Amino acid sequence: MNLRQALTFLTVAELGTVSKAALRLRVAQPALSRQIIGLEQELGLRLFDRVGRRLLLTGEGEQLIAGCRLLLSSASSLKEQAQLLREGDTGVLKIAGSPQHIESVLSQFLHRYAKRYPRVEVRIREGTGNEILTMLERGEIHLGQNLLHAVKLSEQHFGSLPLGSVELLAACHPSMPLGPQTTIEVADLAEFPLLLMDSGFGFRRAFDAAARMAGLKPAIAFESRNPHTLLALAEAGHGIAIVPSQLQCQRYELRIVGLTHRRRVLQEPLTISWDKRRPLPRFATDYCAMLAEHMRETFPITRPTEPTSANTKGKHRFRAQRAARKMRRLRN
After folding, report:
1. C-alpha to C-alpha distances, 8 to 29, 36, 45, 128, 137, nearest whole angstrom
2. Do 133 and 280 belong to one domain?
3. 3-state helix, strand, coil in the chain (%, to 5)
4. Smallest Cα–Cα separation from 75: which of 5, 179, 146?
5. Residue 219 predicted with pLDDT over 90
6. Which range is most confident: 73-77, 134-138, 327-331?
7. What's residue 51's pLDDT?
8. Is the predicted pLDDT of residue 332 greater than 60, yes or no?
9. CB of 14 closer than 8 Å to CB of 22
10. Do residues 24 and 32 touch, judged by C-beta distance below 8 A?
11. Where do the HTH lysR-type domain residues begin and end (predicted)?
12. Which sign does the torsion angle of CA 16, 18, 20, 22 carry?
C-alpha cells in the first residue's frame, strides 16, 4: 500500500461514498473506484461492502484503518521534521481548545506568544473533549487543551503538561435564593432549573460525575455548546448556569458561587496534550511552557462574588420566582 492508496482508502472510509471522496481528493470517480478495486486485489481482501450508494467498511477494512492513519501520520511527520530543519523557528502551529479556553485564555495569550515567535502562524480549532482527542489521533493538530479526566489519553501515545485547575461555578440572577455563602453544595441544586453545557464537553461530564457523587438528579432546563448562551439565560432568571472558572462572566449581572461536595471545592485539572509519535517543533514545546506560566498568572478568571444585599434581592425576587415556576410547569 502506497501513500496515495492509503489516503484514498481512508477518505472513502470517512465519507462513505466514492463521489464525496472524489470531490475531496479532486480525482475523477471512475479513477478513484479503480484505485479501490486495485487495492482490494493487491491485498486480497474485500475492504468495503456496497449498500446502495454507500460504501461501508468490512471487518477486515476496520482493522486496517488504524494502520492506515499511522502510515499517513508518519509521512506527515517526516515532512514537518524536514520543514523544521529548513526553517528553524518558522512554521505553522495547529492547536485546539474549548470555546471558553479560546475566548478567555488564548485571546490574550496569543499576543504574548507572538512576541516570542513572530514568524509562527497559529491556527486554532474549536471542539469538545472527544473532538479534540480525535484531532490529535488523526494528526490534524499539534496540541489540544482539555480537562485531564475528560478523555482517556493513552499514556503510551500521548504526552501532556498540567495547566492548573478549573473550578465548577454556579451563575444565576442575583435574586435567586442560594443562601448567603460564596459556595453551595451540589446536592442543594436539586430545587433549581439548571443550564448546562452540551454533554460532549469535558466540563459537563465533570459536573455529571459530581452530581452522581452527591446523589443529585439535575433538573435540566437547557443545554448548549455556547456557555454565553447559558449566562444570558441565567441573567434573565431562567435558571442556574453551571460554568467553569476560566469563563469570562464580568459583562453579565450575575451572582457567582462555587460548587462544593461535602464542603470540598469541586475543580478539575487542565492539561495540554500532544501525540508523542509525532515530533514537536521547538516553538510548540515552548508554547506549552509559556501557556502554563500565563495561566498560573491569570487563573481563576472568574471568582465567586459576595452575596447580594437584601434590598437588591427583594427588587428582583418576583422575576426569579416566576421563572422558576414556569420551568417547573414545563418539566411537569
Report:
1. 11, 7, 16, 28, 18
2. yes
3. 45, 25, 30
4. 5
5. yes
6. 134-138
7. 86
8. no
9. no
10. no
11. 1-58
12. positive
What are the phi and psi torsion angles at 119 (to 5°)? -100, 5
- Any domain includes 78: no
Asked whether residue 76 is assigned to any structural domain, the reply reads no
Contact between 91 and 281 under an 8 Å Cβ cutoff? The reply is yes
Which domain does 108 fall in, by range? 84-164+270-298
Q: With a threshold of 0.70, does the pTM exceed it? A: no
Phi, psi of 241 (to 5 degrees): -90, 130
Question: Are 191 and 325 contained in the same domain?
Answer: yes
Pair (131, 225) in one structural domain: no
DSSP for residue 189:
G
Whether 36 and 147 share a structural domain: no
Give the three-class secondary structure for 236: coil
**Spatial distance between the Cα atoms of 172 and 165, rounded to a whole number of angstroms:** 22
Interval 69-118: pLDDT, tens:
888 888 887 777 677 656 657 889 999 999 999 999 999 999 999 999 99
